[in-house]
Design brief:
Layout: H1 2-29, E1 41-43, H2 50-60, E2 67-72, H3 80-91, E3 98-103, E4 108-113, H4 115-118, E5 127-131, H5 139-142, H6 156-159, H7 165-178, E6 201-203, H8 217-276, H9 285-319, H10 325-387, H11 394-413, H12 418-450, H13 452-463, H14 471-492, H15 495-515
Parallel strand pairs: 1-2, 2-3
Antiparallel strand pairs: 3-4, 4-5, 5-6
Helix pairs in contact: 1-8, 8-9, 8-10, 9-10, 10-11, 10-12, 11-12, 12-13, 12-14, 13-14, 14-15
Length: about 525
């Protein structure tokens, strides 16, 4: 159906363009020669001899009304009666005069009388187009063949007898003027003495009083272009209007049939969202904060659904009314959008709950891995004590025990705040990794502080000789106190104290050694 409408629209546009092109071609073809003041015989072809033109001028000067004769070399398919009428108006000839147009290429004559003359003619004789006879194979014609000299004008007056019919055509019109009450009739054989079988009279127009107004050549294409643009614009807007109407009608049909189905699906989605709501409650901490944003979206969409349910019946009624159809169509479009939004939100809710379950399971696996690491690290601490009896490692054992207590607390929290536990577990594992790494360095540090650093401090003590209040003596005393504190921290496994004072001890020792 839609394809046929397209075809009809294209056909109408094509017909309009063809009519416009024909009209433009007709206007373009009707062009006028220039008027020469004081000249009663005009040869626009430039092919007629002066003797013939003088003869015609002498003949037409004898009539009781002014007569002008124009010879045209080419008239194509123009109606000579219409052309004579248009040229008469274009030249603004006297209203009591007559204009005769001779088509040399078609052997026809067009005659137009001014308004005063037309008032005396019958309706069917106001403007005539007379078919002229073909050339007669007479001796006079044969003796007037054109000269072989290309500079000599072509002697048509001697070779083509129809040129002599110009006065006869004027006589026909003159006779009609002298008998204003006689019934109109076509010229008879007795009126045209030569080749009468080829002579016919055609009316100027079905409305002879109305001459064709011709346009200047330089405006024809402008008018044609404007007309084409207007036609194309009208076709475009018509197509847009039809397309909009068709689209609206399709929407009305679709919503009329599917509106109830979409409404039922909307109710199902509303119930689905309602069913998942309890699963989002009961969480704490970071998980609760994250889910609040999602719950807010669900509550907002449910409120919009309730407004749709309240307005549905009224919108169905409005869809059947032309005045409110556009607003009703927008309502049903919004209904479909909200249905799709609800489906997506429900799927997202199920995905969030599934992700929470996966996070909770992943946290539980980390708890199990942490317990295995606890057992392995406890065994490693026991081995360190056996190999290095001087290392008591009391502090590190206490710190490790605190980490295990924190792990147990997180494990209990995992059920109600899996997202928060997941984040804290990452921090806990970093802290535990650092504690285990530093604990493995304690034997080496104890060896370093007991031997190498202890010897360096003794060397400084032997080299520094001065009063007890000197700066170097005070710096050495501070270094010895830091050394003792760090050595005890190593033996106890006090990693916090070790990390706190180790850099300070190293800087002061190097600075004093540089001074000494």
């Amino acid at each position: 159906m839609e394809s046929m409408r397209w075809q009809h629209l294209i056909l109408y546009i094509a017909i309009g363009l063809s009519v416009l092109a024909s009209f433009s071609a007709e206007i373009q073809a009707q062009s006028f020669p220039a008027l020469v003041e004081g000249e009663t015989v005009t040869d626009a072809s430039g092919e007629l001899q002066a003797d013939y033109l003088n003869k015609i001028q002498s003949q037409i000067s004898q009539y009781p009304f002014p007569v002008r004769v124009v010879y045209l070399p080419s008239t194509k398919n123009l109606n000579l009666g219409n052309y004579a009428s248009g040229l008469f108006k274009h030249w603004q000839l006297p209203e009591d005069s007559m204009l005769v147009v001779v088509a040399l290429d078609r052997r026809r004559i067009g005659v137009h009388a001014g308004p005063d003359l037309q008032a005396q003619l019958k309706k069917n004789a106001q403007a005539q187009e007379i078919s002229l006879p073909e050339p007669s194979p007479s001796g006079s014609a044969a003796s007037a063949q054109p000269s072989s000299n290309p500079e000599t004008p072509l002697d048509l007056s001697a070779g083509i007898s129809h040129l002599d019919m110009v006065p006869q055509a004027i006589e026909n019109v003159s006779d009609a003027l002298s008998q204003p009450t006689a019934p109109s009739r076509q010229p008879q054989a007795s009126e045209i003495p030569e080749a009468q079988d080829d002579v016919t009279v055609e009316k100027n127009s079905s409305r002879p009083n109305r001459a064709i107004a011709l346009l200047p050549d330089d405006l024809t294409w402008v008018i044609a272009a404007l007309a084409a643009a207007a036609l194309a614009t009208a076709g475009w807007f018509g197509f847009k209007f039809w397309k909009r109407w068709s689209s609206t009608q399709n929407l009305v049909n679709r919503f009329s049939q599917q509106g109830q189905l979409v409404h039922e699906q909307l109710e199902q989605v509303y119930e689905s969202l309602e069913s998942v709501m309890p699963d989002f409650h009961g969480y704490l901490g970071e998980t609760e904060t994250t889910l609040k944003l999602f719950l807010k979206s669900i509550h907002h969409l449910q409120e919009e659904y309730e407004a749709i349910f309240d307005a549905y019946d009224e919108e169905v009624r409005q869809l059947g009314l032309r005045e409110t159809r556009v607003e009703a169509i927008e309502f049903f479009r919004e209904l479909e959008r909200k249905l799709e939004e609800g489906k997506q939100l429900h799927n997202q809710g199920l995905l969030v709950l599934r992700n929470l379950k996966d996070v909770r399971s992943a946290n539980q696996q980390l708890f199990e891995q942490a317990d295995n690491r606890r057992q392995a690290f406890s065994q490693e601490i026991s081995e360190l004590r056996k190999q290095h009896p001087e290392l008591k490692l009391v502090k590190i054992q206490q710190g490790y025990q605190q980490a295990l207590s924190e792990l147990q607390r997180l494990e209990k929290q995992n059920e109600r705040d899996p997202l928060g536990v997941e984040k804290k577990l990452r921090d806990w594992r970093k802290q535990l990794n650092r504690m285990e790494t530093e604990a493995r360095t304690l034997p080496h540090l104890h060896q370093q502080f007991s031997t190498d650093l202890n010897n360096r401090i003794k060397g400084l003590r032997d080299r520094i000789k001065g009063p007890s209040g000197s700066n170097q003596v005070q710096s050495l005393a501070e270094i010895e106190r830091l050394h003792k504190t760090l050595l005890q921290a190593i033996e106890q496994g006090d990693l916090n104290t070790l990390n706190r004072f180790n850099d300070l001890f190293t800087r002061k020792l190097q600075s004093l050694e540089a001074e000494v």
